């Protein structure tokens, strides 16, 4: 039996009653996080412009766009909701596969469930299937090897998870689920090229993956077949084409015994996850060692190779001039943490980015690859922050796991506060409370309503 078919059989056979209670609760929490973060981006200027442009091209208005108070066609809704889901850079991360699963799977299953008039419980079951498939494909690709070739695993693995999740919602047969995932793997793509010049199109990767995954499920339903051997076939096999360090056995290892949805990081800061351990370290030094910009000579950050590659090596990381660069800049996030004692959405405004105090301080931050952290990655995304003081002191802290990780998790209260705080940016408190209540009781919904 191929690894893809093992996944398909798992997706086909899984029923909600067989899911452990803690996994059910975690699945609902990741859905709440993904939808809440997506709604929070509904007023983003670029998103509003794209939504207005796309909806003007469409006469079908059957599926809601998060936070917009308007509807569009099914596949447009999947695409546009996924754009919103990744905009704030606060969506979840499966560190063992380096995938932002929620921003691909959740928009796909939510929009299809709304269109197909599925229940909240059916939505959650499909969500769980999408998380498990995405995580396992991402792990099989080999996190460092896949990333170091320039691929964006959120998209390359996520498209297969979205296809599996939507296929589950549509009640497809085992063969049809194989075909849907096979087609999705054949269409997988998305790279990190946007980092080179700070382009704003990173969110296009998960949006395209979510939309393509949903389409592949409907194609399989309509009778199109996909390649079952797509992961390992000699001519065009996905794993060999996208990685020089893949391990196909990870696709099905402990499937149904180890639930990968339990290993999701929840991001407390609105920027690349690879900056989060650095932010934690900088905030610790500020609070516990009294480190302040005026008494710092320079700061060295030691971290894993991928973290440095994404957030410390590019021109945009070293000299950020706009938000998309600042969100992938370890120097910028260190400067913000030391200056303001926080790193929130407000710190990524153009005014803060242009602030001479920020720019001067970030110029004194250097990011260094440390093999000790690289060797622990992706199981641990750690770093060491060393502040060299003007009076000759050295203050340092090691952060093995960033806040919000499975080894250093946020509490349920912190998660709730995070999402409600995001919602309050775009709606009043009554609306935020109603939205939170609806999402927290989503398993009881007979039919999805617009959020």
UniProtKB/TrEMBL annotation:
Residues 269-436 form the MmgE/PrpD C-terminal domain. The lineage of its organism: Bacteria, Bacillati, Bacillota, Clostridia, Lachnospirales. Belongs to the PrpD family. This is MmgE/PrpD family protein. InterPro entries: MmgE/PrpD_sf, MmgE/PrpD_sf_1, MmgE/PrpD_sf_2, MmgE_PrpD, MmgE_PrpD_C, MmgE_PrpD_N. Residues 7-248 form the MmgE/PrpD N-terminal domain.
């Amino acid at each position: 039996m191929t690894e893809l078919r093992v996944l398909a059989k798992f997706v086909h056979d899984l029923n909600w009653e067989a899911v452990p209670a803690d996994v059910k609760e975690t699945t609902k929490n990741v859905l709440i996080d993904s939808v809440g973060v997506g709604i929070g981006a509904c007023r983003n200027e670029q998103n509003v412009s794209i939504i207005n442009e796309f909806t003007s091209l469409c006469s079908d208005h059957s599926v809601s766009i998060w936070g917009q108070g308007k509807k569009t066609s099914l596949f447009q809704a999947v695409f546009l909701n996924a754009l919103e889901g990744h905009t704030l850079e606060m969506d979840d991360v499966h560190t063992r596969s380096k995938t932002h699963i929620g921003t691909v799977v959740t928009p796909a299953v939510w929009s299809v469930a709304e269109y197909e008039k599925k229940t909240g419980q059916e939505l959650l079951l499909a969500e769980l299937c999408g998380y498990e498939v995405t995580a396992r494909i991402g792990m099989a690709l080999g996190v460092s090897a896949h990333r170091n070739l320039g691929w964006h695993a959120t998209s390359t693995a996520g498209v297969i998870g979205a296809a599996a999740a939507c296929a589950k919602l549509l009640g497809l047969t085992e063969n049809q689920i194989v075909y849907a995932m096979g087609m999705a793997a054949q269409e997988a793509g998305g790279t990190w090229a946007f980092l080179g010049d700070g382009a704003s199109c990173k969110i296009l990767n998960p949006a395209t993956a979510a939309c393509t995954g949903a389409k592949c499920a409907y194609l399989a339903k309509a009778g199109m077949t996909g390649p079952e051997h797509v992961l390992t076939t000699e001519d065009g096999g996905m794993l060999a084409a996208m990685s020089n360090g893949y391990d196909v056995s990870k696709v099905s290892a402990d499937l149904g015994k180890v639930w990968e949805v339990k290993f999701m990081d929840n991001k407390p800061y609105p920027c690349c996850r690879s900056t989060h351990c650095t932010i934690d370290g900088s905030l610790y030094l500020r609070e516990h060692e009294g480190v302040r910009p005026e008494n710092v000579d320079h700061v060295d950050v030691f971290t894993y190779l991928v973290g440095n590659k994404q957030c410390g090596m590019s021109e945009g990381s070293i000299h950020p001039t706009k938000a998309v660069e600042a969100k992938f800049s370890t120097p910028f996030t260190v400067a913000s943490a030391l200056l303001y004692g926080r790193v929130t959405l407000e710190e990524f405004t153009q005014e803060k980015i242009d602030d001479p105090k920020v720019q001067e301080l970030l110029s004194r931050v250097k990011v260094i690859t440390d093999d000790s952290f690289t060797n622990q990655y992706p199981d641990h995304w750690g770093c060491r922050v060393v502040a060299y003081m003007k009076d000759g002191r050295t203050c340092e802290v090691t952060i093995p796991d960033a806040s919000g990780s499975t080894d250093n998790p946020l509490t349920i209260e912190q998660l709730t506060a995070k999402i409600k705080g995001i919602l309050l940016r775009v709606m009043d408190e009554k609306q935020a409370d109603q939205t939170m209540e609806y999402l927290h009781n989503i398993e009881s919904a007979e039919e999805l309503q617009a959020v």
